[in-house]
Design goal:
Layout (H helix, E strand, L loop, with lengths): L1 E3 L4 E2 L15 E5 L1 H15 L6 E5 L9 H13 L1 H13 L8 E2 L4 H9 L4 H9 L3 E7 L7 H8 L4 E5 L10
């Protein structure tokens, strides 16, 4: 199993032990890592490597947000990265208390990539044709992503599990 972390995070897969399939042919991405997981699966398939399952845990979904929202996120990140990250982590865990999670250095380019990323249904059609099972997990109380539009988009591209009372880390309250 290959795991791709969320924006600014590292080694957070322990939060998802109830969801992750632990085997050599599964690729998993959480939040921003969902973009990287999809890209990895497409790369592996190009090389004729075996992939059975792609799991997207709270995949970033901002393609329906207005430009003003995206610009403001980037501006706030550049203005005060520390405060931005503190608020981001608080939002990830809301309404629970913030838990300890490892961090890694980030760049504004990564934030820009996730804010402007456009999911393409053609990628998922290709995965289906190649026999890759796609599983998407969304928390209904997620304060980070555009849950309702993500739910609508991902409903048709794989098996969607909507955890009504879960946050971005898919913790249930």
């Amino acid at each position: 199993m290959k795991f791709f972390s969320g924006f600014s995070l590292a080694n957070e897969q322990a939060f998802f032990y109830n969801y992750i399939k632990e085997n050599a042919y599964t690729v998993v991405g959480f939040s921003y890592g969902s973009i990287k997981a999809l890209e990895e699966v497409l790369r592996l398939l190009e090389k004729h490597k075996r992939v059975d399952t792609l799991q997207l845990l709270s995949p970033v979904f901002f393609q329906t947000r207005e430009e003003r929202f995206r610009s403001l996120q980037l501006l706030n990140y550049k203005k005060n990265r520390s405060l931005y990250m503190k608020q981001f982590i608080r939002g990830c865990f809301a309404p629970f208390a913030i838990q300890s999670v490892a961090h890694r250095e980030t760049k504004s380019e990564e934030l820009k990539e996730l804010l402007y990323y456009i999911w393409n249904k053609k990628d998922f059609i290709l995965l289906k044709e190649k026999g890759v099972k796609v599983e998407i997990y969304l928390g209904g109380k997620d304060k980070i992503i555009d849950v309702q539009n993500a739910r609508e988009f991902f409903r048709g591209v794989g098996t969607l599990t909507y955890v009504k009372n879960a946050n971005h880390f898919l913790q249930v309250f």
